[in-house]
Amino acid sequence: LTRENQSSRRERILDAVFFFMILGPALERFRNGPPSGSFTTAIHWAFVAIGGLGLFRGVFFGKEETPAAPAAPEPVAAAAPAESPPAKTLDETPSDISRAARWDADLRARGRYTELAALLAFLVPGLGHIYLGRRAKGAIAFVVLTGLFGWGIGISRGECVSLAVDEESGHRYAFIAQVGAGLPVAFALLNTHAYEVKHALGIPAERPPEVSSRFSDETYIERLPKLDEGLLYTMIAGLLNLLLIYDAFLGAPGGALRPRDEAARGTTPPLPVVAAPATAAPPPEPPPPVSPAPPVEANP
Amino acid sequence: VSLLSFAAVCAATAYCCTVVKEDGIDRVTSGTLRLFLVLSFGIAAFGGIIEVFTLLAG
Questions:
Q1: Are B5 and A46 in contact (CB < 8 Å)?
Q2: Is the model's pTM score more than 0.80?
Q3: Do A233 and B5 lie within an 8 Å CB cutoff?
Q4: Residue A189: pLDDT above 80?
């Protein structure tokens, strides 16, 4: 496999994961019914539609395969150098796959691994970028996504992350989307299922009171809109973190190459798609020697 | 609070979607701002249309 095909395969695996996770909010919504208020419903479906359309486009129309590069640059006929197409450098190649390959190779040359960056980005939003040396990006991502997730947890009092089997308190489909936020989800899950965890570890814990139906509780019904909002924010945070995992793994696949990477490229081995220049430019001719000006004779 | 949270969600979405596409602080900032405006006004308009139709149907 060439490096480009590997990148393409890795992208498609990520696309499949995205496509699966975007189903979480939709399944949760079908199970629970529409949220309170038509405006909230519109916002919810707008986000789901934007994400779904983006993923659909990425999965089915986003790939542009790079033609296989020759193993060695073919010699260009000296008789017709002007007719041969100019050799494209990787910077001019329109494919995102090549850019991802360059991104991966540059980082490996500096001792950084995109797989580890993706794992760190999954565990803590922004940590993968910090590992790759993009501290500003990582710090902003951490603040934005952890803040959004924490906000959702806060307004729902931690009840929006739950794998309970009962229909009223469990949000298993939403969890498919929430899990993208990584360790914060794990902590929220531990908080929600504190009794089950303590019971499994043999730690004495007070069993939560049995409730026949939470919908008989007026205060719970009053808090339902907030629970809905919390579900929405935590799901969005989980799905948005997938984009950051994508970015750490493939390096802003839609963007331009970074000047810092270009500066560090002196130590990077050339990629196979980079074609050597067809003809070397002739060295510039040395300027003609300037003869010293004849001495000006003084006018007698 | 609802407007603030709506703006926060739009801002987070705009940033994360721009980061995948752009790099460099100036390009990320301008791209985030542009997408934030498109998202917030677009979704608000979409929600407003739904509200109007709901009111008319009611």
A1: no
A2: no
A3: yes
A4: yes
For residue B19, which residues of chain A lie inside 8 Å, CB to CB? 137, 141, 243-244, 247, 252
* Residue A61 or residue A18, greater confidence: A18
The token pair that represents A220 in the structure block: 């719970």
pLDDT tens digits for range A44-60: 666 667 666 666 665 55
**Judged by CB atoms within 8 Å, which residues 69-128 of A form the interface with B?**
none
Name the residue in chain A with its Cα closest to that of B15: A141
- Give CA A244 to chain center in angstroms: 3
Rounded-to-integer distance, Cα A294 and Cα A145, Å:
76
Per-residue pLDDT, A249: 83
Q: Quick check: A69 and A36 in contact, CB under 8 A?
A: no
**Inter-chain residue contact B22 with A137, CB threshold 8 Å:** no
